[in-house]
Write a structure and sequence with these properties.
112 residues, mainly beta, seven-stranded mixed sheet, four-stranded antiparallel sheet, 0% helix, 53% strand, globular
Length: 112
């Protein structure tokens, strides 16, 4: 069983930046960030393969950057130009073969 631990959430003003981190306790392949706002379904934010191929949701493209350190089994999400609509609980996901692992989530609130 792989454990994922997220960190880096918090309260930020519109236009500000935050960096999320997610450390996996074991090997994972594709890693990604998802988010869930109150009353909405969980949605994909960004994914990155072990080889570094990236995929972004249209709503965050150009503002968010996903990266990873394979030696540390850690994935990052740099979030710039944050908007109130980015407010959500952000979850990290790791996939290893047919197994999907989720973190506990970290709250991101964008508000003045």
């Amino acid at each position: 069983q792989v454990q994922l631990v997220e960190s880096g959430g918090g309260l930020v003003q519109p236009g500000g930046s935050l960096r999320l981190s997610c450390a996996a306790s074991g090997s994972v392949g594709t890693m990604g960030w998802y988010r869930q706002a109150p009353g909405k379904q969980r949605e994909l934010v960004a994914t990155i393969t072990s080889g570094g191929s990236r995929n972004y949701a249209g709503s965050v493209k150009g503002r968010f950057t996903i990266s990873r350190d394979n030696a540390k089994n850690t994935v990052y999400l740099q979030m710039n130009s944050l908007k109130p609509e980015d407010t959500a609980v952000y979850y990290c996901k790791g996939t290893w073969y047919t197994n999907n692992y989720w973190g506990q989530g970290t709250q991101v609130t964008v508000s003045s």
